[in-house]
Design goal:
Length: 224
């Protein structure tokens, strides 16, 4: 069964430089430190009420309202980083889910969780803040190389959700199925050294793909 295992929220925080930590030599600001919450939370069009983002250029907004990460990836990272504390919320995600991954989830998929409706909009792009949080120079490139990136949701219908809720997937219509791109496929097209022109153009035609990801993909394609 596909389930919402854990919900995390957090507001932006200012972190001081710490000379003892090699990746924290300068002050920084982030909302990557999310805290699990119990009970129902209210979801608005731009995310969970009480949650926030520090870098609104690259995070948040209607197309990236909710960040999602599979719990099945967590044992891999515990082993890679030798960190027993790498649990739900470790990637700064709002929803930690079970029974779904980058291969089974596609752009445009719709889910009912609790009383809210969501739509998959794009892969998550791991950045330097993930590396700084875990003091690891390898975690960001490893997330990209392994495809364990997570993804974003937009909110189609506001409502309430809570940990333990079932994730109900809605069937994709025939026309959409013919142009279905999984998160894994979208990641491959974005990061592969030699662009697959035909596939990229087809992905850009998917109406549910976020504008930001589409623009980044076009710029990357044009520069190659």
């Amino acid at each position: 069964m596909q389930t919402l295992e854990s919900i995390q929220i957090g507001m932006p925080k200012d972190m001081d430089a710490d000379p003892a930590l090699p990746l924290s030599s300068k002050p920084w600001r982030s909302a990557i430190f999310k805290t699990p919450v119990l009970g129902e939370v209210t979801v608005g069009l731009e995310g969970i009420i009480g949650d926030g983002q520090a870098d609104l250029k690259h995070h948040g907004g209607s197309d990236k309202a909710i960040c999602v990460y599979p719990t099945e990836h967590l044992p891999f990272w515990r082993k890679q980083l030798d960190r027993a504390d790498f649990g739900p919320g470790a990637f700064g995600e709002n929803f930690s889910v079970a029974g779904l991954d980058e291969f089974s989830v596609a752009i445009g998929d719709r889910w009912r969780i609790g009383t809210a409706m969501f739509e998959v909009s794009q892969p998550r792009q791991p950045c330097w803040k993930l590396a700084r949080r875990w003091q690891s120079k390898t975690i960001t490139p490893q997330a990209i190389d392994t495809g364990k990136t997570g993804w974003y949701l937009r909110v189609i219908e506001t409502g309430t959700v809570q940990s333990g809720d079932e994730i109900v997937s809605f069937p994709v219509d025939v026309a959409a199925a013919e142009n279905r791109f999984s998160i894994a496929q979208a990641n491959r097209l974005f990061y592969q050294p030699k662009p697959d022109v035909a596939a990229i153009q087809k992905l850009l035609e998917v109406p549910q793909l976020s504008q930001a990801w589409g623009s980044d993909l076009e710029r990357k394609f044009e520069s190659d």
